[in-house]
Amino acid sequence: MSVRTPIYLDYNATTPVEPAVFEAMKPFFCETFGNAASRGHCFGWKAEAAVDRARQQVAAIINGRPDAIVFTSGSTEANNLAIKGVACARRHEGRHIITQATEHKAVLDPCKKLKADGYDVTILSVDRRGQIDFEELVGSLRPDTILVSIMWANNEIGTIYPIRRIGQLCRERGIVFHTDATQAVGKLPIDVEADCIDLLSLSAHKFYGPKGCGALFVRHKPRKIDLNCQLDGGGHERGYRSGTLNVPGIVGLGMACEIAMSRMSIDAARLLALRDRLERGLLDRLEGVQINGDPSSRLCHMTNLSFEGVNGDLLMGSLEDICVSSGSACTSASLEPSYVLTACGVSACLAHSSLRYSLGRPTTQDEVDHAIEKTVECITNLRALSVMTGTTLNAAS
Ligand SMILES: *Cc1c(COP(=O)(O)O)cnc(C)c1O
Asked: Is the whole model's pTM more than 0.90, yes or no?
C-alpha cells in the first residue's frame, strides 16, 4: 500500500487552512492592509467592507444576525469573554454558574477563577458516555443561577450534548446560556434561534480556517445579553472587544464558514463512512477495545478508543507515523490521564491506553487502512511485550 506518511489523524486539535481560504486571505496582508477602524480613507473602508462580509458569513453558519458577531482571537478568548463577561455583568442578580465535567479547559478554568473570586460553580458529572443527566441539570438550577455553559460537542470523545433542550430550559428560566461550539461549527447544523442560544464560541482553525481567529455570538434580540468586556481600549466590536481587528484572519474565518456550510453534509457522510471503517477494522481484529463517547449522540468524524492490556506510555511512541492524540495530557512533564475520560469513569490506566483518531477533509481511505494496520500491529506487539515481561496492565475486569 503506498500512502504518504506521516498520516495526520488529529483534526480535532487543528486543521490545515483550506487553499480557497488562504487565497481569500492573501490580499489582506500586503495590499489591502488597512485598519478596519480607519473611517477617513479608502484603505480603512476596504478593510471594513471585508470584515462586514465575513461577519455575514460567520452569522450565516449559525443563523445569527451579523451584528451579533464579536470577533476574537479564538475560542479560548470567546469562552473567557462569555463566562467572565456574564458573571461580572450579572453579579448583582446572582453568583451561581453551572457547567459540566468534560468541558474544555477554556471553560473550566475561567469558571475555576470565578469560584476563587466568590462565585458558586456547579460542575455537573457525566456518565460513561460522557453525557450529562438532564434532570440533574434541572435540579441544580437555583434562583441565583446566572449562567449555564455546556459545550455543543466534546473535543476528546465526541459526545454531543442536548443543546436545544438546554437552551429552551434556560430561556424559560431567564438564565443566560453559553455553548462552546468549537467542535460543532462547520460539522453540525446550528441555529442560534431555534436552539435558544445566547452566547456561542467558535474558532476558525478547527474548520479549515486560520489559527488565532474566532468569534463570540452575543444575542441582543429579543433579549440583550449583558456582557462586561475583558479587553479595554479603543472600543472595537461595539465595545465588547477592543483591539485592531485581525482582518486577514477574519476574512479567512468568513470564507471557512462559507465553504463549511456548502460542504457540511457531503463532508459528514464521507467522514462517517471512513470513521466506521476505522472502528470496524480495529474492532474486528483486536480484542479488548472500547469505544468512548455517546454511541447515540457522537461526532461522526472521530473515534476515541481504549485498548485494554497496553502500556499507555509506549503506545503513542510506537505508532510512529500515525499522528493521533493520546488519552494523556502533558502537564509540566508529568503524564496525567485525560480528565475527560476520568470523568466518564474510565480508569486512569485505561485512560492512558486510549487514543483519539479524528478525521478531516483531506483524509483518504488508504490513510484509514494504513492507520488500522499500524494500530493492530502496535497493539498486538505491546500486548505480547506485557505478557513477556509478566506485567498485567489494566487487565480486563
Ligand atoms: C480547540 C478548542 C478550544 C480552544 O480554541 P482556540 O481557538 O484554540 O483557543 C476550546 N474549546 C474546544 C471544545 C476546543 O476544541
From this structure: yes
